[in-house]
Design a protein that fits this description.
By secondary structure, the chain is mainly β. It has two domains: 31-124, Immunoglobulin-like (Sandwich), CATH 2.60.40.10; 129-232, Immunoglobulin-like, CATH 2.60.40. The protein has one helix and 20 strands. It has one helix at 221-232, and strands at 5-13, 20-29, 31-39, 45-53, 63-68, 73-79, 84-87, 93-101, 104-107, 110-112, 115-116, 120-124, 129-134, 145-152, 161-166, 169-176, 182-187, 193-201, 210-211, 215-219. Strands 5, 6, 8, 11 and 12 form a five-stranded antiparallel sheet that branches. Strands 15, 16, 18, 19 and 20 form a five-stranded antiparallel sheet that branches. A four-stranded mixed sheet has the order 1-2-10-9, with no helix packed on it. Strand 18 and strand 19 (210-211) form a beta hairpin. The longest helix has 12 residues, at 221-232. The model is unreliable at 1-14 and 223-233 (pLDDT under 50).
């Protein structure tokens, strides 16, 4: 079904005794706008709109406006030919994004009508820092060692849990954070040698998942080196 809206414009020419009428047909074309969004590991949000005409093709021109309904802010304006916008430093928490195609009358006799996308919800999270420490390093074989992960976020005290790993081996999973944002795990089962320990934070509604740099823990290595030195005296 043809959904074109026709507007007839009549002009009357009065320059001569005989009036002359000229008619021009203006066609109103409806549009549809959709919005997609994504957030990368650094917290940058990419918004991409797509605007199509009622016939299924693209539109000849116009501007797209991106709006954050949560903060009531206009995030930016872009040409419909390149309808993508990258936004940084948004406040943490849920955000309701919308794209508005503003329409255009620059291509008469076609008037391209404006349209609005559905709302897309994204949760913007802060990238926290994860610091890992060992109660004893180096340590003798079979020693009781407490590994502590401290999660520091830019907004409030992080919640959630931590997984401790020795290389690819899981030492402890889903160890809950306390009220200070730290999680501890005690073990006497670290294998001899240089261990590469990491702490992986699972994230919460405000803070993104993150991992600590590897912490090298020497187990039994210092004692072995000491005995070798004494044997060589």
């Amino acid at each position: 079904m043809n959904n074109f809206h026709l507007v007839v414009v009549t002009a009357v020419m009065l320059a001569s005794p005989t009036a002359v009428r000229a008619q021009s047909i203006i066609r109103s074309e409806q549009t549809r706008t959709t919005l997609a969004s994504s957030i990368d590991a650094t917290g940058r949000t990419t918004l991409t709109a797509s605007v199509t005409s009622e016939r299924g093709g693209g539109v000849p021109g116009g501007i797209v406006r991106f709006v954050d309904e949560t903060t009531l802010m206009v995030l930016g304006w872009v040409d419909v030919a390149h309808p993508s916008l990258v936004v940084q430093r948004l406040p943490p928490g849920p955000h309701r994004f919308r794209a508005d195609y503003m329409g255009t009358s620059n291509y008469l006799p076609v008037v391209v009508q404006p349209s609005q996308s559905a709302v897309v919800v994204e949760i913007v999270r802060v990238m926290p820092a994860v610091a890992l420490s060992s109660s004893e390093n180096p340590c003798p074989s079979g020693a009781v060692v407490t590994l502590t992960a401290a999660i520091a976020g830019g907004v409030g005290i992080p919640k959630g849990a931590v997984t401790f790993r020795d290389g690819e081996q899981v030492l402890a999973t889903h160890v809950g954070l306390d009220r200070a944002g730290t999680a501890s795990f005690t073990t006497s089962a670290l294998a001899d040698g240089t261990r590469w320990i990491t702490a992986e934070y699972e994230g919460d509604t405000v803070h993104a998942p993150a991992a600590s740099p590897p912490l090298t823990v020497d187990v039994g290595v210092a004692c072995l080196r000491s005995s070798q030195l004494h044997a060589g005296d």
